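Hi there, hope your week has been kind to you so far. No rush at all, and the record is pasted right below.
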Amino acid sequence: MKNLLVAQSGGPTSAINATLAGIISCAQISDQIDNIYGAVNGIEGVMEENFIDLRDKIDNSEALQLLSQTPAAALGSCRLKLKDQKQLARIIEILQKNSISYFIYIGGNDSMDTIAKLSLYCRVHNITGISIMGAPKTIDNDLCGTDHCPGFGSAAKYIATTFSELERDCHVYAKKAVTIVEVMGRNAGWLTAASALSRLNGGKGPDLIYLCESPFYPESFIQDVQQKLSEEDAVLVAVSEGVKLSDGRYVSEIVQTKATDNFGHSYIAGASSVLETLVRNKIGCKVRSIELNLMQRCASHLQSATDEDESRMVGMKAVQAALNGESGKMASIIRTSDKPYRVTYGLVDIDVAANAEKKVPADWINKSGNDVTQKMIDYLKPLIQGESRIVWKNGIPETMILY
């Protein structure tokens, strides 16, 4: 008997379940797979043998579509970084016990680290018969080895739409005001850059955009805001949550503790409130800060059709590769053309993606460090195209609950 096991990890996205749907749809038509299981709560669920039967839960095309439009991780998630050989041995033992021939983990940088460690463990201990594959996911778009990450396009669409709406709202009053919007992105500013897409239909969009790739200078920030205020009634600012001072500290660390999460990452939300206080003290005008927070990753009603389609295809690619005997690889998206936009799907060695971060290229940020260039717009624009076929029920989008 050969079974497939899939799990999800890290921060969810509005398209992570489209990848799950792609995995299920491809596995369902394969004569090499007997059962399709989902591990609840990622690798933690694997170690606890907390599996659900996905063939039983998803048995028709309508269910697959409903799964694709469901936000967050339908199988649950976790933030666990494997640290010792006992954990690895335990996981492989469970996979063998349950006749798991194919294990696919959907996640970001740290999840790919899990795939790297498990596949290396199998090689070192001469364990055969288990294909271990990664499927990329992250709204941060910071995974190496893929042109962009499933989940990012939908989050970028939400950001662009939100900034377009905010910009209109900010200009209804004549009184001078500053609105600072904090966008997710610890060490990579891709999502914050997507705020520039709000200009596509003629709107002004954000007046200033600060990414975490460029050092943040409070004095220059105040000068930028003052200059914009001298030209117009309202100033809209987009800022990455992970913007850093020239000494390497996160701006948010000015008022926060050194607390970290299970991966050792600093808690960094709060940059916008720090800058709000700075503007209030230095300029004295009306100012507000907005933290978009979780809405950026769970707004399935603004899911990009391009993102949904590509997310499904990445899941299918991971299954096809596993069936062909590949292991220790991550499915990837390869852009072959910008105009017209075209992609293909490939594989990269998992070590390319594990624990690595893809940053915004320097020439995609303007010289002043307060906006993006046309290269960024050309890269981003195709990823937000199209609207997914959302099923509505009782006035709100319908979603699926697997467990």
Q: What stands out?
A: The chain has two domains: 3-138+300-355+389-397, 152-298. The longest helix spans residues 152-170. The domain at 3-138+300-355+389-397 is CATH 3.40.50.450 (Rossmann fold).
